[in-house]
Structure formats: C-alpha cells, structure tokens
Automatic annotation (TrEMBL):
<keyword id="KW-1133">Transmembrane helix</keyword>
<feature type="transmembrane region" description="Helical">
    <location>
        <begin position="170"/>
        <end position="190"/>
    </location>
</feature>
<feature type="transmembrane region" description="Helical">
    <location>
        <begin position="122"/>
        <end position="143"/>
    </location>
</feature>
<feature type="transmembrane region" description="Helical">
    <location>
        <begin position="210"/>
        <end position="230"/>
    </location>
</feature>
<protein>
    <recommendedName>
        <fullName>DUF3307 domain-containing protein</fullName>
    </recommendedName>
</protein>
<keyword id="KW-0472">Membrane</keyword>
<dbReference type="Pfam" id="PF11750">
    <property type="entry name" value="DUF3307"/>
</dbReference>
<feature type="transmembrane region" description="Helical">
    <location>
        <begin position="89"/>
        <end position="107"/>
    </location>
</feature>
<dbReference type="InterPro" id="IPR021737">
    <property type="entry name" value="Phage_phiKZ_Orf197"/>
</dbReference>
<keyword id="KW-0812">Transmembrane</keyword>
<feature type="transmembrane region" description="Helical">
    <location>
        <begin position="36"/>
        <end position="53"/>
    </location>
</feature>
Length: 234
C-alpha cells in the first residue's frame, strides 16, 4: 500500500504542482507533437523513481510512465468531444489512478480488489451518497411549493445553491462521524453571516423564510444520516 501511496503522490506532484499552464496549453495545441507532453511524462518517471527510491522497481515506474503517456494522448484527442471540460479531466485522473493501482497490485489484483470492497465501510458510503444528490432532490420536492413564490435571482450562479447544500451536508456528516458537533454550530453561524447582508439588502421576507427553511431541512437531513450511521456502533 505504501508503494501505491508514493506513486499517487508522485502523480499529484507531476500533474498539478510541477506542470505549468504553458505546458498544458502547448499540449492542447500541438497534441503528440508537443515537446512538453514527453517532458511531462519524463518528469513523472523521475518522480516515481525518486519517491520509490528503489532501482528494482524501475520497470513498474516505466510501465506507469508509458501508460501515463497513452492516457494523456487519449485525453488530448477526445477532449474536444466534451462540452463540459470537467468530464474528460476526471476520466483522465481516474484512469491514471486505476493504472497505478493495477501496476502495484498486479500480482494479486483480483484478491486485493475483493478485499478492498470487503473492508469498505458501506454504511458510510451510503450516508455520503445520500447527503449529495438524493438529499438535494428530496429538498427540491419539499420546497417545491415555496420555490414558486420566490423571484428568480438571475445573478446567482447556475445550481450554486444545490452544490453549496451538498458541500455543507458533507461537512455536517463528517463532523458527526468524528464527534465534533460544536463545529456544526459554527458552520450554521458562518452561513448566517454570509447570508445576512444579502437578505438585508433585498428586504424580502419570503426569501428569508425560504432560505431559513431550506437551511434547516438541509442540516436536518445531514444530521439524520449521521445519526443513522453512528447508530450502528451502539
């Protein structure tokens, strides 16, 4: 597992810390002709070897570096097919992690994967999934009648409220799991401070009540998920 973590660290450093924007732009423009594409892969190989610090693992590092090159080339040529550029980015990163995982555990890949799933905390996974999109949909149904009475704010970012809600519920769930209930109060206070000036300027009672109800429902769903998760230990 330590080898896997070291290789992931090398990947993070090579892809995000030591890759200038200039390289990214040049690769996107020149594709396989870009010198920075190969320099980027060479940098990854060097980072793999430095962090592994074991010459006996050079073949693994080489295979991962070559695989990295193939994945990057695939992304460069398929990227224009996606309107949402975050999709190829996450697919690309997922493939890199999968490649490292396969190369590290290739000796017992099936056994290691089965063990990984067996040891996974499925209660926590279910709670995490619940507080994201399912909770957002539930909130949408609960507040649907009220939302029709609120004027749409065209200055807001698209779906900003939905994603803010998901993030805050994830935070609440995390704080419950680690037993830091007091931080949830600070989170509510912080959100209230940020909302105060906005609501004060609009002087809209309906909007204030709508946001308050939405906040309470959001936190309530996250707390419910957290309590149900923790109940398995009692």
């Amino acid at each position: 597992m330590l080898i896997f973590i070291k290789l992931i660290l090398a990947h993070l450093i090579g892809d995000f810390v030591l890759q200038p924007t200039k390289w990214v732009v040049h690769k996107e423009s020149n594709k396989v002709s870009s010198k920075y594409l190969y320099l980027h892969v060479l940098l990854h190989f060097v980072l793999y070897m430095l962090l592994l610090w074991d010459l006996a693992l050079w073949k693994m590092a080489m295979v991962i570096a070559i695989g990295h090159l193939g994945i990057d080339i695939l992304k460069l040529y398929t990227d224009p097919m996606f309107k949402n550029k975050s999709i190829p980015f996450f697919i690309d990163q997922g493939l890199h992690v999968l490649l490292i995982y396969i190369c590290v555990f290739y000796g017992d890949l099936s056994g290691r994967t089965v063990l990984l799933f067996q040891d996974m905390d499925w209660y926590l996974v279910t709670a995490i999934v619940f507080v994201t999109y399912p909770a957002a949909i539930i909130m949408g149904k609960v507040l649907e009648g009220m939302a029709n009475q609120i004027e749409t704010d065209h200055k807001s970012l698209p779906n900003a409220g939905k994603y803010i809600g998901m993030i805050e519920r994830l935070f609440v769930l995390i704080f419950i799991v680690i037993g830091r209930w007091e931080v949830i109060g600070l989170l509510i206070a912080a959100k209230s401070v940020f909302r105060f000036n906005d609501l004060k300027e609009r002087n809209n009672r309906k909007l204030t009540e709508y946001i308050l109800i939405g906040t309470l429902v959001s936190f309530g769903l996250a707390i419910l998920a957290g309590l149900l998760y923790m109940s398995q230990y009692h």
